[in-house]
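Reader question, answered in our methods column.
A reader sent in the components of a multi-part assembly and asked whether the whole thing could be modeled at once rather than chain by chain. We filled in our standard form and ran it. Here is what they sent:
COMPLEX SIZE: two components
ENTRIES:
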Amino acid sequence: MNRPTTLYDKIWESHLVDERDDGTCLLYIDRHLVHEVTSPQAFEGLRNTKRSVRRPDLTLAVADHNVPTSDRSIGIEDEESRIQIEALDQNCADFGVELYDMNDIRQGICHVIGPEQGFTLPGTTMVCGDSHTATHGAFGCLAFGIGTSEVEHVLATQTMIQTKAKNMRVTVDGELPIGVTAKDMILAIIGEIGTAGGTGCVVEFAGEAVRALSVEGRMTMCNMTIEAGARAGLIAPDEKTFEYLKGRPKSPKGSTWEASVECWKTLKTDNDASFDIEITLQGGDIIPQVTWGTSPEDVLPITERVPHPTDETDPNRRKKMERSLEYMGLEPGLPLKEIKIDRMFIGSCTNSRIEDLRAAAQVADGRKVADHVSAMVVPGSGLVKEQAEQEGLDKVFIEAGFDWREPGCSMCLGMNPDKLAPGERSASTSNRNFEGRQGPGGRTHLLSPAMAAAAAIKGYLTDVRDLGVD
Amino acid sequence: MQKFDKLTAVAAPLPTINVDTDMIIPARFLKTIKRTGLGKSLFYTLRFDEKGNEREDFVLNKTAYKNAEILVAGDNFGCGSSREHAPWALEDFGIRCIISSSFADIFYNNSFKNGILLIKLPQEDVDKLMEGAERGSNSTITVDLDAQKITGPDDGVFEFDIDPYKKNCLLNGLDDIGLTMQKEGKIHAFEERLKATQPWA
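And here is the structure of the entire assembly that came back:
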């Protein structure tokens, strides 16, 4: 009988092209997403060495990080951003790579459009020059964020050099309480294991609370696996996954579809497989989460208070905490619900899909954004935007005083016109609260879309459950 | 890629834990289509104040560390994004080696592709080297990649482990795309097999 293996082991082994005696492996890559920020130097490398893109048919490009989310008919004002986007256009034309340009309805954040187009498939390997490539793990796709040298390597060879990671499993048992979402679950996990808790590991998420999530909720979870330091996140595909992918433009069709689903059904961890690290949480214990500091691990239930550095025994951690609180302009002991915000951002590859917008719109419906708050909603793709508009969500947001914008990475990372001013405080559905992440001096509190909408309405970080929303 | 064999240089202490890639180089400096010239933006917010003047209290702005080529860093250095601009900025600034108790995975890989040696040591060894690095320009240490040894300022010797493939690439300055392309036969055979068994992939 074969040795019991994990889902990660299975995908890894089925993609091995070569293995050296020292354990260094050559792994085949089935899908490659390319965007404008981390690819120009890779294409330049190909040109300098007279190499071509080995499999342009397995490569899909989109501009997302730099694009403005306001009216695009006037083009891109920022010269550097414009040059980077023009370079992507030129590189895709020269090397024969399919591109969704800024005016294509299919344009959006690369990790939103991959699944949306059926480019992301179970049992495949995927890479992208972006750490949030982990998102695609929600489909049982082994997906790695890579640097530009590796982007060039994959473009040239359709493989990457890697050593095998450790197996880690995070199980969330039971049911999530009302008002608690996938975002709260992943933030609670990062709070538990820390921002380096998954370093060197591929993390499989399992348990009743994970299985109960929609495919989009699973994407939110896997997306933030990188914030726990892991190389990738994985969730075994199931009927929900197949239902989500069926009929998508790049999904298999006809008899190939039937054959692929039969194959995908075998993609799960064997019962007796062992993991190097196992963590278990009780879903019923999770309370809506919000970050207070400058690392995603600086997270607490909304019912708590800003922590005291004096309670931290490790001197390096205490120092980091003091620095975080100073940067965030927060006093220890302040109830999190008393933190006043200036801005609110719903968007990013973590939370900009249709279900995220529906959850936020449900909170916003019939209410008004607080006078002192500027709130923006940025759909993850042109198709998400279109769907939301068909459902009338744009009207709900606009009537409540939210700004309804064009798709892109927007204020997640402060490299396009959407950014925080120094000292501004934002309730954000994105994935990183690092110093300066949303703009120099900007202060970020990470939370779920429903919690973000609630904060915009109240003007303070708020427990969405207090608004009587389910 | 630049080779790395042996380096004797000043080591600068940066004990902050979880130094993230936004701290190493903020996103607004990623709007370039070149790999070069990023050193001026390295640790931008830590190095410069709002007016663009150097912050005197930042370690790499102190005279003793101006020529540092080695960083002794806090745990989980390089966490966050996959931007290779982080090692490009470090390399352009002149940093060739970083020693810490742990590094984030993507940053770790990216650094080796750019001729920067990252060394993982147990916390107690990092603590000793951090203490040594606090001595300013007297904190010269020697890193010998071939022998996998660090000699500290007091002649204390620390041995380190390293992946043999990465070590070989770094010692010889090898371009790994060229190496992989020699395996074209195996890649092609894999694709043929995949086409037969999983045509949708």
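What stands out: The radius of gyration of chain A is 21 Å. Chain A touches chain B through 76 residues (CB under 8 Å).
Send us your own complexes using the same form.
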